[in-house]
Design goal:
Helices cover 79% and strands 0% of the residues. It has helices at residues 3-40, 56-85, 91-129, 141-158, 161-170, 176-181, 183-197, 203-226. The protein is flat. It starts with a helix and ends with a helix. The mean pLDDT is 79.
Length: 227
């Protein structure tokens, strides 16, 4: 394919991804209200988040709908990216990636669900109780949802770890022994990333990020051995 043909192919893939995102966001608008209630439920019912502008609730509603749409559209996004890269892959590589597409989507969704149902409800009580005798904590809706959605997306990406490790081993890029040797570096890196993601120095909340990632990393080493 010439450069112009590659660009035209890329344009067609981007258009399809955009359509999938639009459809996902439309579906997300019907789910945004109950999901928003779920995300706010860990907060004190007598101290709900406040909107600082007249357009704040509307912007947050569509932001939540966009995150839902991203999760819904993830299978199409991964598949279109695969189709764009397919001409440069060997037949066995195409097979592995095609099989892994639905698993990548499920892993991302599992990470989002984990953050929404475990990570956020577990970390917020500590955040709300920190210096509660000195500071009255009143969250703005915009900042609270920005914090929550960033955790959701990070958790979704973290849950892709075993699948990425499996395919790196399957494609002979990194073998399982290399992952095993790098375990100590990964532990330090996970601690740093957990400290950045979680806005608190509480070790319990850091372990909520580190623990699942390290378990997923060990599971990834096991998958790499099978690969």
């Amino acid at each position: 394919m010439s450069l112009l043909e590659h660009l035209d192919e890329l344009r067609r893939r981007v258009v399809r991804i955009t359509i999938a995102l639009v459809v996902g966001v439309v579906i997300g608008t019907f789910l945004a209200a109950p999901v928003l209630r779920l995300l706010i439920s860990p907060l004190d019912p007598e101290n709900p988040p406040i909107a600082l502008s007249p357009t704040g609730p509307t912007a947050i509603f569509f932001k939540v709908a966009a995150v839902i749409g991203l999760v819904i559209a993830m299978p199409v996004i991964v598949y279109q990216l695969f189709q764009f890269a397919r001409p440069g892959l060997k037949p066995n590589e195409q097979k592995y990636i095609l099989i892994g597409t639905p698993f990548a989507s499920l892993s991302f969704a599992a990470g989002v669900v984990f953050a929404a149902t475990v990570l956020i409800p577990s970390s917020l009580p500590f955040l709300q109780g920190f210096l509660s005798d000195i500071v009255q904590q009143q969250y703005s809706l915009e900042q609270y949802i920005s914090f929550v959605t960033s955790l959701l997306i990070w958790a979704g990406l973290v849950f892709e770890t075993p699948l990425v490790m499996y395919f790196l081993s399957k494609l002979n890029i990194v073998q399982w022994r290399g992952f095993k040797k790098g375990r100590s570096v990964v532990i330090i890196g996970a601690a740093v990333v957990a400290a950045i993601i979680t806005p608190t120095t509480d070790p319990f909340n850091m372990l909520l990020i580190m623990g699942p990632f390290l378990l997923l990393y060990e599971f990834g080493i096991l998958l790499a051995r099978f690969a």
